[in-house]
Amino acid sequence: MAIGPEPPLRITPEMLLSRRIDFERRMRRLPPVTAAILVLLVAIFALEVRFGALRSPESVIGAGALVRERVSAGEYWRLLTAPWLHGGLDHLVGNGVALFILGMVCEHAFGGRQFAVLYVLSGVAGSVVSGGVSPGPSVGASGAIFGLQGAAIVLFRQYRDRLLLRDRRIGFVLLLWAIYAIVTGLTESFIDNGAHIGGALGGAFIAWRLHPVVLSPLPPEREASLGVWLWVVGGMLAYGLFGWLRAGR
Q1: What DSSP assignment string belongs to 210-232?
Q2: What is the pTM of this model?
């Protein structure tokens, strides 16, 4: 008796999910690089309060805020110092919550070293666009944090067939934070949406060049390239600190 061809096998969602990696498995609730950045932001804000940096626009400019006129005059270090300052406690707390959530996501996805490069370069991208669209003064880590959000969007879009995100509430929380940050940028001094846009675009662009270690270890050639970028980022931060110290004399 002739046997006809087997009917095609129907692929079910369960079969596809079994080949995807559970993104949240083994995710650290307080990744070390994120924790270090949070501690540093709080410490810097404490110094701002201690030395009266928030009393007036002039005082926050003296503390290292981003001002287009000063950058055009050669104070490029302000592109690096402004993302580490904040204009008030509510500004710091809002950014801290978003950094905590996005730090868990991005540091888990890319590893601590790639995360550090992503964070710093996103902050610089935010400063560059901010200086182009606003005279300032402006401060805040939200440009760098929007960069993390842009990177997370690229990550889950690019690897949507390989990553399983169980708790989708995180996206809703981050959407609310983004709306809050944008509205705040329209209503409060020292904050501008140019940094948000620049950081998001910068982070999204950088994410295309990063290797997701949550899927596989970093290849040797990427290790060498990452080492170079870490030196670049370290040099940029050193330049920002040197410029700030020199200006404060």
Answers
A1: S--TTTSPPPHHHHHHHHHHHHH
A2: 0.83
| Catalytic status, residue 138 | no
CATH number of the domain residue 144 falls in: 1.20.1540.10
Cβ count near 21 (within 10 Å): 14
Residue 2 lies in a domain: no
Annotation marks residue 142 as catalytic: yes
Is 5 within a domain? Answer: no
| Residue from 235, 233, 244 nearest 114 by CA | 233
Structural domain of 109: 26-244
The predicted-structure confidence for 48-91, as pLDDT tens digits, reads as follows 888 888 888 888 888 888 998 898 889 999 999 999 999 888 88
Q: Which of 56, 142, 189, 225 is catalytic?
A: 142
* Peptide bond just before 32 cis, omega within 30 deg: no
**Domain count within the chain:** 1
pLDDT digits (tens, 9 = 90+) for 93-141: 888 988 998 999 899 899 999 999 999 999 999 999 988 888 778 888 9
Catalytic hit among 86, 108, 196, 211: 196
